[in-house]
Structures
1.
Amino acid sequence: MSPPRRTRIQRRNSETILDAALEVFSAQGFRGATLDQIAEVAGLSKPNLLYYFPSKEAIHLALLSRLLETWLDPLKAMNPDGDPVTEILLYVRRKLELSRDFPRESRLFANEILQGAPRMRRVIETELKDLVAEKARILTRWMEEGRIARLHPVHLIFSIWAMTQHYADFEMQVGTVLGPDEPDPYPEAGLYLDTLFRRLLAV
Amino acid sequence: MSPPRRTRIQRRNSETILDAALEVFSAQGFRGATLDQIAEVAGLSKPNLLYYFPSKEAIHLALLSRLLETWLDPLKAMNPDGDPVTEILLYVRRKLELSRDFPRESRLFANEILQGAPRMRRVIETELKDLVAEKARILTRWMEEGRIARLHPVHLIFSIWAMTQHYADFEMQVGTVLGPDEPDPYPEAGLYLDTLFRRLLAV
DNA sequence: TCCGTTCCTGACCGGATGGTCAAACCTTTG
DNA sequence: CAAAGGTTTGACCATCCGGTCAGGAACGGA
């Protein structure tokens, strides 16, 4: 999407801007974010932002397009020839790591979907849908072979998404409810989800 | 929170405004929504909105405060003296019905939490936290009595929230991925979640 | 019917916000 | 070192948006 940056300065500043924009967009949503906020976080002036990106929209778009790869990778990595339970648990673990390591990206995505995905419809209707269909077929085959329990494959994927993203998207709620004694919920969440899906998938 | 409406017109218009505001806030977030949009959906003029509510903020607040009750009710209804599995499955079902029947409320809540709950911190830190703590104790007791499987009680609650709210908050994604063949995902989701939690909780 | 109250609106205001631009500044290169 | 090209910014603009206000319309009780 975004053209390759030629000079060192261009690469560095584009990166700085995208990082600052991620910070602000993920916390405030597209309309809630202002160029002034992004500029301040980036430590640059507003006109300078618009020297590197033609508009606020373009910054947002650049973030979304680089996001999708990262987001779909773990599902793509699910190996049809591996051990079903191992593969699925690995997917859950990877997805949870994504929530832990890239919560801002997760919230950016959540914001976008919540608002009807005005800027991602296309990609969701094509890439995401096709990928899920492909992986659902694999899950169905595993079920027919009696290697995991019979379940609705797509809802199975939904439940993985829901539970893993919950820890990033509702971080504030999770943190508050667990209290300050448990500052990092991820180890416990990993154990919990592991147990959950093991029991769910057992034949 | 909002003062009781005296006349018939006041009741009717306040209701119309809150419904329109719910529509717009849940789809656009607080900052993304404009009074003009709300006014148009409500079929009223902008100054008329501000005749009934002192500010945009006040409309949003009125929505949030009426929301919380509805939102906590199902968890409150979990009966300590009932059959554990039945009670938990009932909670899951009620929460899923909430997503199906009040998706806009769900998204309003999601928007709020996503952005760090700037207007709900207090309530989450007190009411919600206390309620979860209380219900977690009940779950723990059930586990110690060997009536359901041993799990982290709070993460169990998180997983219920995550999976049920997913269908409302990510409605667009769910609808797209399932395709137009399956216009109403809720019956299937109900079956899936029922199975999931039965297997998870079985001792 | 008349009158006080409630309800409604067009016109307007001030501040925020996305975006522009000319000019200054800096870096690189011949 | 000087020109060329790349980078940065202060000042500015048009629009949007939350909110105000004076006055008019509709309502309801007597």
Note: Residues 81 and 87 of chain A are 9 Å apart (CA to CA).
2.
Amino acid sequence: MATPPHHPRRSDTRRRIQDVALELFAEHGYEKTSLREIAERLDVTKAALYYHFKTKEDILVSISEDLARPVDELIAWAESQPRTLATKQEMLRRYSDALWGAVPLFRFIQENQATVRELSIGESIKSRITALSEMLKEPDSSLSAQVRCMTALFAMHAGMFAMQGIEGDPEEKRAAILEVALDLVAQAEASGVAG
Amino acid sequence: MATPPHHPRRSDTRRRIQDVALELFAEHGYEKTSLREIAERLDVTKAALYYHFKTKEDILVSISEDLARPVDELIAWAESQPRTLATKQEMLRRYSDALWGAVPLFRFIQENQATVRELSIGESIKSRITALSEMLKEPDSSLSAQVRCMTALFAMHAGMFAMQGIEGDPEEKRAAILEVALDLVAQAEASGVAG
Amino acid sequence: MATPPHHPRRSDTRRRIQDVALELFAEHGYEKTSLREIAERLDVTKAALYYHFKTKEDILVSISEDLARPVDELIAWAESQPRTLATKQEMLRRYSDALWGAVPLFRFIQENQATVRELSIGESIKSRITALSEMLKEPDSSLSAQVRCMTALFAMHAGMFAMQGIEGDPEEKRAAILEVALDLVAQAEASGVAG
Amino acid sequence: MATPPHHPRRSDTRRRIQDVALELFAEHGYEKTSLREIAERLDVTKAALYYHFKTKEDILVSISEDLARPVDELIAWAESQPRTLATKQEMLRRYSDALWGAVPLFRFIQENQATVRELSIGESIKSRITALSEMLKEPDSSLSAQVRCMTALFAMHAGMFAMQGIEGDPEEKRAAILEVALDLVAQAEASGVAG
DNA sequence: AATGAATGAGGATTCATTCAT
DNA sequence: TATGAATGAATCCTCATTCAT
């Protein structure tokens, strides 16, 4: 007997909509992706999308909720840890996992910042980034130390897609990026307080 | 007192359109900014925009042509220099100048990558970034050296806007970002070839 | 009494759009007929038209496909017949039926040749006319014999509308036109080969 | 000294506008030809067109007035002649001259009937055609005799452009068309009164 | 004799969304 | 669990026309 409906079992269609939508959002941007396009790709009607989601934005919200959970977990974890360099570096390692675990979503966010900012997910994304950077940098450290911390973050964001210009095994590239990021927070720590 | 030009101020209109358009593009994104909105802000008709520009996209193209020139000049300059560390660092300094000389444009590009990619300016932007990164990194250096070079670039891009969360004088922040970027290429150089 | 279909009269809409569109196209021309006009006449929104047809041009294409079928059938039939005078005359009789069976369409085509030529239906219309005239005239007959054949065709086209200046029963007029056309091909046949 | 301004000498530009306009009207139709297009082809501004003509329609009117004069003269001449077969045939000969003397104009009229009908020139064109056909056909002759007369007219109209599918010297084709037309009125005459 | 700048009206088309079935 | 039919609002864009210079 097939898997019993646990919850009424979030239908397969729902997931397929999310998949296709995310793919198209990431490819052409949120605004340029129409519901017609999504529906056509799935061979269903636009109206079908509305059976599963309240609105276009809601599709995106649901995707983000499902895929960005690891980042929230990482933040929750980090908040319970001592603010040591080791913790910060473990944060980066976990963040790398989270990003590479949902490349299309984070690519979408990276490439549609203007749009995302005006959508309801904008708020939660912003607060996650803020939380992460608050935990990485010491508030009373020098400006360049702070910059190094933020750069560690951006290096991972940008690195995810922009490194396609460099040859090499994806996992090695990811490792290289992480290494640079780890190094940056280490240097930030070393450079000490402002002055 | 300088007599104003014959026609009162007739047609700085073109410039005013560019200004308002860029402001709105940067604020709400390219797709969400309608020509109606631009026209209303300027208190002219939509048709007036079409007198000055062939197309919505053409407005953006013209802005980009006008404001991104310094980057092209920088690339031209760099191509005539020896590939030393000093040259690379001077490139970063000039790039910093170019970026901070047209913040709204580069903010727009940064935050609308998905859109920009599908627009005609996408090609020229991509080729500029490629050119810059080709000149910063040594092709046979280690992966992490290459990552460091690209990160130097991204640090400046992202830094331009994302540093708003950090207190401090803008010029000082810019200097701090540049410093980190300079440091990254220095480290890249130091770490030597792969292996 | 025939039970009307489930949905009251839902979507004979498509047919109604075609009808009104053709009427307006024939009355004011294709370009001067706006979709707003069509929609208003039907008391639906412009968007409703786009539910049923991809494009303004597509409305016309669909009309032409539906109504010009008899001409295609006639051509197919004629191609399987011997090239005798009797065949040619039967062609004209059937062509007369086809034309009078869809007067508004052929009136539209006749009166909007410049427009039609630049539309996708232009090609198919042109090829139909060519096919017909190729089958009516002998390639090696005298110039005036060929002119007579083409004139037989044009007489029917023009006659359909231009004869409104002449009093008399429509069916009688149609018969008179057909008679003249039949006579023209007979004369063409009689006049023999060039020389 | 150059030719003295006779009338202020209807400038050369005026004529050039008419030429280009007629060419484009005939090529793409009246509605699809924009003043911008005309102006661009002449390398002047749209506003310049308005110096020479009150409106778009006025350009067409002026062309028609200039080029269709021969038809009016022919009608005037015919009205002073006896209604014999010889007169009718001379009418056709002169009409052929008039048509072939201004091919683009008559091509335009032929291919844009729907448009022309709604323009001010429509009235004068219609009345000319009516006048001609009234003079060709005897009001109490048989229907088919009348059809033959109108067909003589249409043969010339349609023949002007549609004969491009037939090989042969243009002048010979024109002669062949005229011959058929002459023949048609002769037959009409011969077939006598209705009954 | 012509231009530069602008307008107002209107064009076709697309979109997210709704609702009865 | 979906569809078919439709809407209202908005989009970009084009056009004929005007007028001060």
Note: DSSP finds eleven helices and no strands in chain C.
3.
Amino acid sequence: MITKLDSVLLPRKKFIFHYTNMRWARGRHETYLCFVVKRRVGPDSLTFDFGHLRNRSGCHVELLFLRYLEALCPGLWGCGGTGERRLSYSITWFCSWSPCANCSVRLSQFFSRTPNLRLRIFVSRLYFCDMENSRERDGLRMLKKAGVQTTVMSYKDYFYCWQTFVDRKKSNFKPWEDLHQNSVRLARKLNRIMQPCETEDFRDAFELLGL
DNA sequence: ATTTTCAAT
């Protein structure tokens, strides 16, 4: 069942300011995370939960989300008894920045140890990914290995977020200038980041050769 | 041409 409380909806201006995917995102000193949690309760029955979070002093929003996980996903680790069924959840989140290196490590560890929990990440902008050798780039590759797919948000994702998380007061989503071009540019960039790097190729080759 | 980044002042 879906219940929309006004208090869980993002103000329109906040959404637009923080999710605009411009190249030089000056002043975005906060990160927003809009999430949908789906829980499979039967062969053809799902429940939904959704909302948004913002980073708090000293705590990146991804780690804040992990803190709320137990409340969002009851029964994720079983209910304490023996032999009870672990529940399965899938989470989709839409973040204004992609995760930093540290958050990526933490998320990779967490999600590779929790196979009954799936995460898909959509991001509006790439955080500190300009340098070829940035740790943030490593982090995104690490997430992929842990089964967490990261995707750059496109028009349909912004549209979905607007419909789902924003206190839009029935107004339609008005895309900003260059939304599409920026999205395509960032998607290409992420694609390049996800290509296995050369040293990794060498490592695989060495492994094949038994070296 | 150059600009920014889960702040720090």
Note: Chain A has seven helices and seven strands.
